[in-house]
Design brief:
Elements: E1 2-7, H1 13-26, H2 31-52, E2 59-67, E3 72-79, H3 98-101, H4 106-114, E4 117-123, E5 126-134
Antiparallel strand pairs: 1-2, 2-3, 3-5, 4-5
Length: 137
């Protein structure tokens, strides 16, 4: 698994996206999957940058692996910030208007809908969010 560790700041979003996109392109991933994964990566990383260590700054580690049968990409996001399981919150009700729905929840819902698997664990003082997308769909 390839790995990148950065300070969890918004300024490092492009480095994280470049890292993931480079891995996907080197493995001939379909453009549709690259776009879906890029959006999910942005959503997850921005949330880490905004909330994991607020108001201080800590590290975020992103791991990426492409392979397996069927061919899939697995990406892990790890931070040592405040424990937070984004999957524990009830999905946003998209049938309600924005005013009725309230703030939050749409981003992780989008990630869950666009990926084949999304898992969260808190292990050894780290938040670990793992997304997986099959590439032959």
């Amino acid at each position: 698994m390839k790995e990148l560790t950065v300070a969890a700041t918004l300024e490092n979003l492009s480095a994280v996206q470049d890292f993931i996109e480079r891995e996907l392109e080197q493995n001939d991933c379909p453009m549709k999957a690259i776009m879906q994964i890029s959006i999910a990566v942005e959503e997850i990383y921005v949330n880490i940058a905004h909330y994991a260590y607020n108001p201080s700054v800590g590290k975020a580690t992103i791991r990426c692996e492409v392979g397996g049968e069927p061919v899939h990409v697995t990406i892990q996001f790890m931070d040592s910030g405040t424990p937070f399981d984004p999957l524990a919150k009830k999905d946003a009700d998209t049938t309600l208007s924005a005013d009725e729905r309230g703030i939050g929840g749409l981003g992780i819902l989008m990630v869950k809908k666009s990926m084949d698997q999304v898992d969260y664990a808190y292990e050894s003082g780290k938040n670990i969010l793992t997304i997986r997308k099959e590439l032959n769909k």
